Amino acid sequence: MATAITNTDSPIGDLALLGLLQLVSPALPIGAFAWSQGLESAFELQWVTNEAELGQWLEGVLDDGLTRCELPLLARLQTAWAESDSATVANWNQWLHATRETAELTDEDVRLGAALVRLLKSLELLPQADDGELPPEPGYVTVFAWAAHLRQVPLRQTLLGFAWAWLENQLAVACKAMPLGHTAAQRLTEQLRPKLVAAVDKALGLSDDQLGPVLPGLALGSALHETQYSRLFRS
């Protein structure tokens, strides 16, 4: 089964671009800085000990995680919001929860989603009656897709922005926990920028039956993180 994804190459307007930058800013008050998405476990277990290994880890998570899960799902959810299709939004939101393999990963998705909902409510930007409804326990990707739709961000740019925010957060985690120097973080940014574009290209071409992350190492590390003795991050 394939889901049609359209309008991926639409030009982005100035207000849409600023709205996207607002959504992906590290200053967005939703607490994303508190989560490492399993990366802290990789440091603790010494799976990642230097800049080169971090680059390999991030590329692996991007290829087998975001490219197969969050990014194509984001496109489907934004399309469903554009069509005011609450049932499809709810189905994909439930699908996303089902792919989270540990309590921490589920908790992160739900808490970030709830934090973004609270922020949008304070800005009077939640869906209205004609827009469709937020599902119970909307995940972060689901709410992000709504906000991108509301800001009239083209699908391709929505995915690029989401991937960029993920990369920035992961490098910020590494700077705090490895530690990784800021110059090294910029080297990794330069290394991985083309990978983000390739990930978006691939994600937009996947059919529904090709979706689903393949990250057994991250899942194992995340499970071990739940009982890790010393932690800086919540996941």
From TrEMBL:
Cellular compartment(s): Cytoplasm
Gene3D superfamilies on file: Urease accessory protein UreF
Family matches, as Pfam families: UreF
Highest taxon, organism lineage: Bacteria
One of the record's GO cellular component terms: cytoplasm
Keywords recorded for this protein, A-Z: Chaperone, Cytoplasm, Nickel insertion
Signal peptide positions on this chain: none
Gene Ontology MF terms in the entry: nickel cation binding
InterPro entries per the UniProt record, alphabetical: UreF, UreF_sf
Primary localization: cytoplasm
Function field: Required for maturation of urease via the functional incorporation of the urease nickel metallocenter.
Annotated family: Belongs to the UreF family.
Assembly and binders: UreD, UreF and UreG form a complex that acts as a GTP-hydrolysis-dependent molecular chaperone, activating the urease apoprotein by helping to assemble the nickel containing metallocenter of UreC. The UreE protein probably delivers the nickel.
Protein name: Urease accessory protein UreF
